[in-house]
Amino acid sequence: MAEHTIHFGILGCASIARRNSRAIKLAPNCSISALGSRSLERAKKFAKENEYPAYVKLYGSYEEVLDDPNVDVVYVPLPTSLHVKWAVLAAQKKKHVLLEKPVALNLKDLDVILEACEANGVQYMDGTMWMHHPRTPKMREFLSDSHQFGKLKAIHSVFSYNAGEDFLKNDIRVQPDLDALGALGDSGWYCIRAILWATDYEMPKTVTALREPEFNEAGVILSCGASLSWEDGKLATFYCSFLTNLSMDISALGTKGNLRVHDFVVPYQDHVGRFYVTSDLGWAGIPEGADPPPTVHSIETDLPHEAHMVAEFSKLVENIKSNGGAPETKWASISRKTQIVVDAVIASIAKGFEPIEIN
């Protein structure tokens, strides 16, 4: 392993850990150093299935990963109900924390995590992978172009997938003691992040849950939506679901142009991300329709976006470890703003779909 490689320890063998295990192996500045599970047998099975190198240490507990002196970073893909315990303990043991989303069940719990990271001088980031794709800053350039896009007026985001019968019965994301936020925490987190990203993280004035959310028998959300409004007149909507065919859309509408992306959560192809823009679109007459046609931007990359994520996180950790730098705080701020909106949706549902003011 390279001298300045950042060493990851992984807590648990969740399905998302498969994708991010591959990401850590692909990224140029980090490596997997340890894996812990509730049993050593399960850790061995996961390591074999995912072709872990022989030097990776395998443990039958999470504590052993945190006590491993060679581990710089812990990636935590555990059920959300376990995040406070293990993220805080990791921070107290001076391990930097890459925390799978949803990061917490509520803002109170997230603040406990963030305070522990700050107090112990460790880097925090959540696992919202699409934020790190090279396509994302290119889309930002278009939204920031006053001549091509103009002023942002509306944002709409959807992340849904038909999870299937086995998922709806057995997955941790539908069990109230493990991931009580259900579809809102899983797919809704992405939608809310997309909306906040499009507004450059300007918080809305109000959040109002849409009527007729769907729940399972245990009271976990299977599908829901909400509308958000800003003091300057901007508005946004999102829809998230475990019950609807796969859709991963962002639409950002400006006074002069529009941006659309159809695969923002997981690009249809690892090595290219596409988005579509229009500027000064108008009617071209009958029967021609509208003109000019959308412009397609294809952003190529040598690495999938999750590998960009762990590489960026590792770069931040390396700056702390080798240069005495301070943790980058913007990722904690972005997580916190996302969690505030999640909490507001829950509150609006509980209060009969009343608007919830964001302070």
From TrEMBL:
Superkingdom, natural source: Eukaryota
Pfam families, per the entry: GFO_IDH_MocA (PF01408), GFO_IDH_MocA_C3 (PF22725)
Every Gfo/Idh/MocA-like oxidoreductase N-terminal domain range: 6-125
GFO/IDH/MocA-like oxidoreductase domain location: 145-259
GO terms assigned for molecular function: nucleotide binding
UniProt cross-references to Gene3D superfamilies, sorted A to Z: Dihydrodipicolinate Reductase, domain 2 (3.30.360.10), NAD(P)-binding Rossmann-like Domain (3.40.50.720)
Family: Belongs to the Gfo/Idh/MocA family.
Protein name: Gfo/Idh/MocA-like oxidoreductase N-terminal domain-containing protein
Species this chain originates from: Lithospermum erythrorhizon
Origin organism lineage: Eukaryota, Viridiplantae, Streptophyta, Embryophyta, Tracheophyta
